[in-house]
TrEMBL record:
GO biological process, one term: cell division
PANTHER family listed in its UniProt record: GLYCOSYLTRANSFERASE, UDP-N-ACETYLGLUCOSAMINE--N-ACETYLMURAMYL-(PENTAPEPTIDE) PYROPHOSPHORYL-UNDECAPRENOL N-ACETYLGLUCOSAMINE TRANSFERASE 1
Species of provenance: Formosa sediminum
Name of this protein: UDP-N-acetylglucosamine--N-acetylmuramyl-(pentapeptide) pyrophosphoryl-undecaprenol N-acetylglucosamine transferase
Membrane association type: Peripheral membrane protein
Key words of the record: Cell cycle, Cell division, Cell membrane, Cell shape, Cell wall biogenesis/degradation, Glycosyltransferase, Membrane, Peptidoglycan synthesis, Transferase
Keyword Signal: no
Function: Cell wall formation. Catalyzes the transfer of a GlcNAc subunit on undecaprenyl-pyrophosphoryl-MurNAc-pentapeptide (lipid intermediate I) to form undecaprenyl-pyrophosphoryl-MurNAc-(pentapeptide)GlcNAc (lipid intermediate II).
Family of the protein in this entry: Belongs to the glycosyltransferase 28 family. MurG subfamily.
Annotated compartments: Cell membrane
Main location: membrane
Higher taxonomy: Bacteria, Pseudomonadati, Bacteroidota, Flavobacteriia, Flavobacteriales
Glycosyltransferase family 28 N-terminal domain span: 7-146
Gene of this entry: murG
Reaction(s) catalysed by this chain's protein: di-trans,octa-cis-undecaprenyl diphospho-N-acetyl-alpha-D-muramoyl-L-alanyl-D-glutamyl-meso-2,6-diaminopimeloyl-D-alanyl-D-alanine + UDP-N-acetyl-alpha-D-glucosamine = di-trans,octa-cis-undecaprenyl diphospho-[N-acetyl-alpha-D-glucosaminyl-(1->4)]-N-acetyl-alpha-D-muramoyl-L-alanyl-D-glutamyl-meso-2,6-diaminopimeloyl-D-alanyl-D-alanine + UDP + H(+)
GO terms of molecular function: UDP-N-acetyl-D-glucosamine:N-acetylmuramoyl-L-alanyl-D-glutamyl-meso-2,6-diaminopimelyl-D-alanyl-D-alanine-diphosphoundecaprenol 4-beta-N-acetylglucosaminlytransferase activity; undecaprenyldiphospho-muramoylpentapeptide beta-N-acetylglucosaminyltransferase activity
Amino acid sequence: MSKTYRIILSGGGTGGHIYPAIAIANELKQRHPDAKFLFVGAKDRMEMEKVPHAGYDIKGLWISGIQRELTLKNLMFPFKLISSLFVSRNIIKKFKPDVVIGTGGFASGPLLYVAAGKQIPSLIQEQNSFPGVTNKLLSKKVQKICVAYDGLERFFPEHKIIKTGNPVRQGLLDIQSKRAEALAFFKLVPEKKTLLILGGSLGAKRINELIEKEIDYLQTRNVQIIWQCGKLYYEAYKINGNTKHVQVHAYLNNMDFAYAAADVIISRAGASSVSELCIVGKPVIFIPSPNVAEDHQTKNAMSIVKEQAAILIKESDLDVDFENKFSQLIESKEKQNALSENIKKLALVNATKDIANEVEKLLNI
Ligand SMILES: CC(=O)N[C@H]1[C@@H](OP(=O)(O)OP(=O)(O)OC[C@H]2O[C@@H](n3ccc(=O)[nH]c3=O)[C@H](O)[C@@H]2O)O[C@H](CO)[C@@H](O)[C@@H]1O
């Protein structure tokens, strides 16, 4: 009888850490239908809703990141950490995992720390060109580190690094065939160009402000708009959905349809978004968040822009540059095609399979 593998996946806080974990779990489940999976995330964060929605059990730790200023949340941090280490120890004792996989975000810290201490094989996946604190700390403890960008030996032990790319959900791999279904799903007009606006998993305040201000201008460019504004901002921006050919969404649960319907995309440059956009292969304008550690979204976007595969507008330049750059793109089919062709070349389509192969090696399969 073959062994029933027991696998813990831990990560979360934002979609950028959750979806890679779900994609890895789905691939392993397909290969080993009997395997048992458990997710560990942070209480009150999006993973507590998104992971069960994907069909997996999840346990939440009482943990959060450290802020730079002295806040009550920060003063609580040592207590949260001790509690999370204690709960992680219990989870591991009870579930007895054969392997533990971390996909970043603070919840994965205590769990992988405890697992590594107990000599349980472990792997982390770093989505960004600049790693977060949790993965930097864990890199010393784990066996393998799957990355999506070159140059990460600056932060991680070189012999552990494997370049795989970021896992992307299966449904996003073949969006070309979904165009007609997608247009019908969003009730779009096939004759009009569709502009998709993405603010990352949480929504982006500055992008929302921009689109609201530019709505009349965008109407003159004859585009219809799918605008994902983020759950937090929905109440403030949903009124814009009264404008003809503009639809505002708090969150898009059907990203495959959104990408399939789009002709041009404006997006934040979170790691998963960037990886998905390479696979999707549409012309993109990146507006990276300047409020993330080490400005890593700008670095993520630059890795695409330097290959002439996307346009970047810094938040601070939006008032001056947006209309010019958008008009140049929307009016030139040639430019749109060139960006599409170039960004597709950067896609790492086998990421999920390659990571699953590395997990299997840790399981001695
Ligand atoms: C503000 C912040 O801290 N952002 C970080 C966060 O971004 P964020 O969580 O936004 O991460 P990503 O851009 O990497 O991924 C967003 C994911 O959410 C999905 N999605 C998004 C919107 C939506 O309506 N529906 C939907 O399904 C996207 O398809 C994608 O899979 O984690 C990333 C990965 O570590 C980092 O690079 C980002 O800097």
